[in-house]
């Protein structure tokens, strides 16, 4: 479209596209032209305006396919003006524009998870209308009521261990779609137990030994227990240390005692670790044994006196 010596025109509602030269050319001296609601798309030169025309009316300008700005607040108008060439001079202050939401993932971050992780999406540009995600590249879409939540448990535990790409989608009120993805690792792990104390084959007397452990697991721990008689009796404990049950220790035979510790995570996966310790209760009498209510030492002493007395008497 070429306007020469043409002044005080309203130019609106035109589709001006794919011109190999100028979309709209306004030479100098064309005063008071008003251009709005025109679609200027893919022209080699969208427009050139040497007459400082007005390129918008009542907060509506024109659509420019080469607009470089954004409509972050989704009001249908680009948030920055469009500078109609030549540089400076006229501007379209209300370019018609709409763009897809831009989103980013606050969580999960790149990590290994056993349970279905918590997610949080941030909409950095645009206004979210609906949100969903997929664990299988869009084959199964799981809708979310908001921008945060837990990844669907069923879908999560359906996936085998390994790398999982979660793609999040957010669309706006016009159905423009923003998406982004994160790759995390799913790994079901049984609790890994390390026995810190006692040492292997450490010797203990009659007071039952203490033990302490560390546990590595990605899930909360649901239960801990141990046995020293190969599972005939088991004893629960909480935390990372305990003292072996006194009755169990008393009943254990002298010599090698197997202490086996079990830890179960909240997915029901059980890890165990075993250590041998030695039970050696020394046989030291704490007082002299009594015979028939008499003190043996006293009796022996008395008998020695009597025998000595008899021997002395015989010698005489
Ligand atoms: Ca806007
Ligand atoms: Ca937008
Ligand atoms: Ca686990």
Radius of gyration: 44 Å
> What is the average of the pLDDT values?
91
Bound ions, cofactors and other small molecules, one mention each: calcium ion
Q: What strand line-up does the widest sheet have?
A: 11-17-16-13-14
Number of strands: 27
End-to-end separation in angstroms reads 159 Å
Shape: rod-shaped
What's the order of the H and E elements?
Answer: EEEEEEEEEEEEEEEHEEEEEEEEHEEEEH
Which secondary-structure class do the elements indicate?
mainly beta
Percent strand equals 35-45%
Poorly predicted runs: none
SS field, number of helical segments: 3
User: Percentage of helical residues?
Assistant: 10-25%
Taking the sheet with the most strands, its summary is: 5 strands, mixed
Task: Note down, in words, how this protein is organized.
- The model has no long low-confidence stretch (mean pLDDT 91).
- 10% of the residues lie in helices and 41% in strands.
- Strands 11-17-16-13-14 form a five-stranded mixed sheet, with no helix packed on it. The protein has a five-stranded mixed sheet with strand order 19-25-24-21-22, with no helix packed on it.
- With 316 residues, the protein is mostly beta strands.
- Bound molecules: calcium ion (CA) (3 copies).
